[in-house]
Amino acid sequence: MATDVEVPALGESITEGTLAQWLKKPGEAVDADEPIASLETDKVSVEVPSPVAGVLSEQLVNEGDTVAVGAIIARIDDKATASVSPPPSPAQSAAASTTNPAGAGETPLLRGDEHAPDAVGSEAMVAEDHVTTLSPAVRRAVLEYHVDPSSIRGTGKDGRLTKDDVIAAAQAQSRRAPEARAPASEPSTRAAPSPEQGKSSQAIGERREERVKMTRLRQTIARRLKEAQNSAAMLTTFNDVDMSAVIEARARYKDLFEKKHGIRLGFMGFFVKACALAARDVPSVNASIDGDEIVYRDYLDVSVAVSAPKGLVVPVVRSADRMSFADIEKKIADFGKRAKEGTLTVDEMQGGTFTISNGGVFGSLLSTPIINPPQSAVLGMHRIEERPVVKDGAIVARPMMYLALSYDHRLIDGREAVTFLVRVKEAIEDPTRLLIDL
What per-residue confidence (pLDDT) applies to 347? Predict the structure, then answer.
């Protein structure tokens, strides 16, 4: 008996997605709730589980097809047994008839990507069952770092590969590369190439182009950022903050904090708390425009910009103004880990009222962040570096950070934006204010 596999609910207001990759082939055995395909939506990658245990008997759509929520994409035969040589999927059959009419050769291991690296070639075919169950983040890393996944020992659950495994293998591969590229000694009677020949070879080797279709996530990021520029009257105000007090507090309490809560005390907790305090004095920063009305809130849901393999994502720390430092740090650490794994849910990235983006972790000195609609403001953090400043009439070195607040001038006046940023600066430079609500 065949059981239909339907596209699951993808989140509020999301009605369709793209079938990014089949994780199982026709004829392969699957367990109940085992992922058989990976869907890509405007926000996240979602795995489609099998509703029953059995054999994947049929794939009804190809990789790259757009599928609606509730659409049937495959069928599972819960009475059959796995075949030794599974039949090809529609996508594989089409590819074979187009690129290899005679049936000779081999099917590329990473299906759906004609730019698969040479390192993942015929010698890896023996490990195809293992490779095709890679998570979206790991598959992206395999393509990015040009490594053979079949040669890597996985450290994840049930021996699965993680992104860190792929990066470690790539680093080991790069260390071996110079030795592999070292030319063997040649007879001295061989004529050396002319300068013109050397230049020609070098130029040809250095000039390459590659066309890769934009993912749905990248398309959505591009569209929303452009919409923000077109719809909001954006302006950015800057300030700098002395991080001495926060650095001292972290140094003094980091061991006790980690021992008690099981997580390191970071900077983000201080900034979230500082923004919550400042938003009480300047509520328009945490408000939004809805038609001809302004929506004010008595809570702060902070969207924290996190880097993911396919682009920037912004999961939401809800009611952050009521959370402890430990809860904030735990939540953000969890978001960062799952963003790399590609396991964040759509619901976790909807409904923020204010955004904090930390470009400093990548070395950014200063930037003008773009508002995340329908929010009205975003705070940009940057790298900490020692700079000369004047304190009590003397020039001293202090760990300084530039802060940038981009805001919608339709709703927030310049005075309010500057006041908000000054409140954040005061709270960071004197963290006691966070405890006594000043």
Answer: 82
